[in-house]
Structures are given as structure tokens and as C-alpha cells.
């Protein structure tokens, strides 16, 4: 049972992080100044203050929405795989981690599309 709780907590780290950052960033709690340490950092999002604020808020909304789905799928899959047996449980945990990382990376695509739609190459609003 200890192994279940350990892997359950490990499996929930990425989804909970997505929810927390999504909640913070979709509002006004993202990093105020353009910086290379924290926030949604791509070359387009770091052009100026407008692109920075837009990209961080947009990414926060996406992570908040997707985070709920990833959290539910992860919890459900972890519990079902535990009931199916140890080998399936361990394999499922690895697959979940890789899938969560892929989902987190995919959140970049809609943000960059929205940035390109709203701003030109120089970061000026269209």
C-alpha cells in the first residue's frame, strides 16, 4: 500500500503543478517583468510587456483547463492499474509520466498560435 501512495503522489505531481500554475497565471499572478527565469518563456512571448502578459495569461488558461482533465485521467488510471496488479501498475505510472510531459509540451502550440495571430514578428499588436 505504501508503494501505491508513493506512485500516486508521483503521478499527480505534473497535473497538480499544471493546475496550480494555471490558476496563478490565468489571473494576475504571473511574473510581472519579462525575465529568463520564470513564466512562459519563448522568443515571441519575451518580445515586450504586452506579449509577455498575453502569453502568460493565455498559457495559464490552457493549463487550468487541461490540468483538470489530466488530473482526472491520472487518478482514474492509477487506481485502476493498482487494482490490476503490480506489473501493470508500474508500467502505467511510467506511461502516465511520459504522457503528462507530452501534454505539457503540447500546451505551447496554442499559445504560440495565439501570439502569432494577435502580434506581428516584432511584438506589435495587429
TrEMBL record:
Bilayer-spanning residue ranges: 6-25, 62-82, 88-111
Keywords tagged on the record: Membrane, Transmembrane, Transmembrane helix
InterPro entries reported for this sequence: SdpI/YhfL
Pfam families reported in the protein's UniProt record: SdpI (PF13630)
Protein name: SdpI/YhfL family protein
UniProt organism field: Faecalimonas umbilicata
Amino acid at each position: 500500500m505504501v508503494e501505491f501512495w508513493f506512485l500516486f503522489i508521483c503521478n499527480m505531481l505534473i497535473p497538480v503543478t499544471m493546475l496550480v500554475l494555471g490558476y496563478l497565471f490565468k489571473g494576475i499572478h504571473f511574473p510581472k517583468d519579462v525575465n529568463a527565469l520564470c513564466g512562459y518563456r519563448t522568443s515571441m512571448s519575451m518580445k515586450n510587456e504586452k506579449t509577455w502578459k498575453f502569453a502568460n495569461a493565455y498559457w495559464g488558461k490552457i493549463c487550468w483547463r487541461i490540468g483538470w482533465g489530466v488530473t482526472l485521467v491520472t487518478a482514474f488510471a492509477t487506481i485502476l492499474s493498482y487494482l490490476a496488479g503490480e506489473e501493470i501498475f508500474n508500467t502505467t505510472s511510467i506511461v502516465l509520466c511520459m504522457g503528462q510531459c507530452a501534454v505539457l509540451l503540447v500546451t505551447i502550440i496554442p499559445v504560440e498560435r495565439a501570439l502569432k495571430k494577435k502580434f506581428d514578428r516584432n511584438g506589435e499588436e495587429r
